[in-house]
Amino acid sequence: MTIADIKKTAEAKMGKSIEALKGELQKIRTGRAHPGILDQVQVDYYGSLVPVSQVANVSLLDARTISVQPWEKGLGAKIEKAIRESDLGLNPSSQGDLIRVPLPPLTEERRKELTKVVRHAGEDTKVAVRNLRREANDQLKKLLKDKAIGEDDERRAQDDVQKLTDRTIAEVDKVVQSKEAEVLAV
To answer: Could you say which of 133, 159, 181, 182 is the most buried, measured as most Cβ atoms within 10 Å of its Cβ?
Structure first.
């Protein structure tokens, strides 16, 4: 493995960490509805648990209401029960085949709790990025120990990895700040 390979691998993994953070933050609901909120809700479908989006059409009726249209007749009650029992705090109601999921407006207290969740997710991502930096530095030290590179090359490569880490952590902070602003906006 060369210095370039180590840097490229670290950069790719740090990019994946940011994508994972963005995916995690998308699950945190703000005042507006979006179909992705129900992605983590699992429904019992012939003995196996599957996401709601795989057994029903999930769409928006308006800014605060999600509609769920099951593809099979008997699934309505199971989907409604799964949404009600999820930790999202939603109360679906069925109207014939259609299930309406109104999103209650967020209280100020709930918004503050959600900002703490957002910050925690950001901190977890920063820890992951720092672990990736440590892995890259360990690989560089191993190359030095095996006499594949010189001390100057190792020092320069460690500085590059540190700069990459700093850029990635700054990006994490930006993502977290924008999500906090979105959560706190009324």
So the answer is: 133
Cα separation, 13 vs 90, whole angstroms: 35
Indicate the number of domains in the chain.
2
Question: Do 111 and 179 belong to one domain?
Answer: yes
Contact 172, 21 (CB under 8 A): yes
CA quadruple 125, 128, 134, 140: dihedral sign: negative
Same domain, residue pair 66 and 158: no
Instruction: Choose the final residue of a domain: 69, 86, 102.
Output: 102
User: Between these two residues, 53 and 137, which has the higher pLDDT value?
Assistant: 137
Contact 21, 122 (CB under 8 A): yes
Q: Which residues pair with 94 in a beta bridge?
A: 99
Interacting residues of 53 by C-beta distance below 8 A, sequence separation 6+: 35, 38, 39
Q: Is 91 left (phi over 0), alpha (psi -120 to 50) or beta?
A: beta
Note the pLDDT tens digit of each residue in 35-93.
Answer: 777 777 888 888 888 888 888 888 888 878 888 888 888 888 888 888 888 767 778 88
Residue at a domain's end among 86, 102, 118? 102
Give the CATH number, domain containing residue 14: 1.10.132.20
72-86 residue pLDDT tens:
888 888 888 888 887
What is d(CA 22, CA 164) in angstroms, rounded to the nearest whole number?
Answer: 19
